[in-house]
Amino acid sequence: MTLVTDVRLRRVLDSRGNPTVEADVLTEEGGFGRAAAPSGASTGEYEAIELPAAEAIAKAREDAVPRLVGEVHAGNQREVDRALHVADGTEDFSGIGANSAVAISMAAAKAGASVTGAPLYQHLGGTFRGNNYPIPLGNVIGGGEHAADATDIQEFLAAPVGAPSVSEAIFANAAVHGEVHDILMERDEPAGKGDEGAWAPSIDDEEAFEIMDEATTTVADEVGFEIRFGLDVAAAEMYDEAEGGYVYSDRVRSTEEQVEYIADLVAEYDLKYVEDPLDEDDYEGFADLTEKVGDRTLVCGDDLFVTNTDRLGEGIQQGAANSILIKPNQIGTLSDAFDAIELAVENAYGHVVSHRSGETEDATIAHLAVATDAPFIKTGAVAGERTAKLNELIRIEDNAV
Ligand SMILES: O=C(O)[C@@H](CO)OP(=O)(O)O
Ligand SMILES: [Mg+2]
């Protein structure tokens, strides 16, 4: 019923104005799915390889499309994704590009769902999926690789942990984003926005912590539920061995100092979430920090694990982190992302489904998060390519997809 009859690929715009790959998958019985690949700026060294969009499309047309059309069923995700791996023939999708692979993989899932008439989250998660929804982590202040002349820490994320529903959580994050703006205005700190729609003022990290504390407290009082906050340090971008450690605007921190610094921040601000607090090669540092604060906060590996089961397995062995960021384009297919989620869940690691800094209106990750009972989703707070996912979550909760 879901035999693939055509795969069409094209270049479309992403939110940074760069070309990215969009895929359409068509099947017998009129099935149709469309999806587009996102793109990172602070990419991990061990991610699957994104090729220039035009090249990825040319390679996929030559090598992948003939192995899909008339050969695989969109309703059988493993079959589709195996064919993509065979077509690619490398370990890191450098053959056809992880951008082509992930766009086709996600479009196939949507095509499979469309034939059965089930919403994508149910197609992916099964009919016995639980009734949980992820808490959205909303990026409201940011810098690092996502904005020039702003904070050293890449993302300050609102975490509305007490929200009674997804929609209330989403509106709370938007309110925190608005409150941050008001506080910045009061302080006479004008701010543009970074790649993900977060405010990118020219302030130091210390001031950003003060503002986050104030903004989350103010909005929590207004809405009447608990709002905490967290970070994506994106520390691999700061780490410079020759400089002796983590290079901040005002100083360099050694690995030990970095672990202490982050542990102190967790204690001082009761942080709910800390992503990539250490370099992507430093399992040991991650393990040290997890030992110190892992009972109180989520220590999450993004560049550390890159959605890869081998790297996650190593982290589990060493006790590095207690949660994993899931970005399908880091690994190339939905099947590989599901494998990483399964391994995480089996080992009591939390999983956080995530957007990239370069995004499109594609909302697949909202369905992926709901399908897999993810405790958290990280997909911004405002901006159209972010609200595409957030509004889809609202629709899913409202049974309207
Ligand atoms: O580091 C991250 O977690 C992401 C998304 O916020 O950024 P990028 O897509 O640039 O890697
Ligand atoms: Mg990150």
TrEMBL record:
* Gene3D superfamilies in alphabetical order: Enolase-like C-terminal domain, Enolase-like, N-terminal domain
Cite the Pfam families for this sequence. Enolase_C, Enolase_N
By its UniProt entry, which CDD domains does this protein fall under?
A: enolase
Source organism superkingdom: Archaea
Q: Which PROSITE patterns match?
A: ENOLASE
Q: Which residues bind substrate?
A: H146, E155, E275, D302, S354, H355, R356, S357, K378
Keywords for this protein? Cytoplasm, Glycolysis, Lyase, Magnesium, Metal-binding, Pyruvate, Secreted
Co-factor note (free text): Binds a second Mg(2+) ion via substrate during catalysis.
**Sequence ranges assigned to domain Enolase N-terminal in this UniProt record:** 4-124
Q: Residues that bind (2R)-2-phosphoglycerate, according to the entry?
A: Q154, K327, R356, S357, K378
Catalytic residue positions? E196 (proton donor), K327 (proton acceptor)
Which pathway is this protein assigned to? Carbohydrate degradation; glycolysis; pyruvate from D-glyceraldehyde 3-phosphate: step 4/5
Protein residues bound to Mg(2+) = D232, E275, D302
Q: Looking at the UniProt record for this protein, which Gene Ontology cellular component terms does it annotate, in alphabetical order?
A: cell surface; extracellular region; phosphopyruvate hydratase complex
The protein's required cofactors: Mg(2+)
EC assignment: 4.2.1.11
Function summary:
Catalyzes the reversible conversion of 2-phosphoglycerate (2-PG) into phosphoenolpyruvate (PEP). It is essential for the degradation of carbohydrates via glycolysis.
- What protein name applies here? Enolase
The record lists the organism as Halosimplex rubrum
